[in-house]
Write a structure and sequence with these properties.
By secondary structure, this protein is an alpha/beta fold. It contains nine helices and seven strands. Helix 8 links the parallel strand 6 and strand 7. The longest helix has 15 residues.
């Protein structure tokens, strides 16, 4: 049995793709752990200690989620997805295309559901911090896989927090599927 350890940001998408896979055991870690790298490292190692570690384990994180992810995966003998972050996991080469359009911050519907936990609770950003950190961006692209309903009120609240226009861009699950199914037979 293959075991997948990943961030809950892409839970809806991963659950959708793997709903018929009987030979995959999925373990999710809470969203936003990358805001506290020590906590993320501890959480990953604790989970790997619990579920076991060998080449039948796949870490569903991007290499930029934690600077030691490659080292952790090597030490535990597990695989890691070939992508930098959850946005690249979803978009693959399409990311370059969207990036060419301007200074863009990307979120998924999972990010939209968890932005308070990530930015306010974990990073401790107030409205001024948010404005300083998001002020660089010309837009926020919300990647919509169609699996989680996007509520206008939630989008408006995030816009009011960041003060950056939000564009909704429909995306498919093809790149995520390709990455996952490279490891999950």
């Amino acid at each position: 049995m293959t075991k997948l350890l990943c961030c809950e940001i892409l839970r809806a998408e991963i659950d959708q793709l793997l709903r018929t896979k009987q030979n995959v055991e999925i373990h999710y870690l809470e969203a936003g752990l990358h805001a506290d790298l020590k906590k993320m490292e501890t959480s990953i190692k604790t989970a790997l200690d619990e579920i076991g570690s060998n080449d039948d384990v796949l870490l569903g994180f991007g290499s930029m989620c934690h600077p030691e992810l490659e080292l952790i995966s090597a030490n535990y003998g597990v695989n890691v997805l070939a992508a930098k972050n959850c946005i690249e996991i979803l978009l693959g080469d399409k990311l370059k295309e969207l990036d060419a359009e301007g200074r863009t911050f990307y979120i998924t519907s999972g990010w939209l559901e968890n932005w308070r936990k990530i930015f306010i609770e974990q990073l401790k950003w107030d409205k001024i911090d948010a404005r300083q950190n998001f002020g660089f961006y010309e837009r926020i692209v919300l990647l919509d896989t169609g699996l989680i309903p996007l509520e206008d009120e939630a989008i408006l609240e995030f816009f009011e927090y960041t003060e950056v226009p939000i564009e909704i861009v429909p995306v498919d699950l093809d790149n995520l599927k390709k990455l996952l199914f490279t490891y999950l037979k």
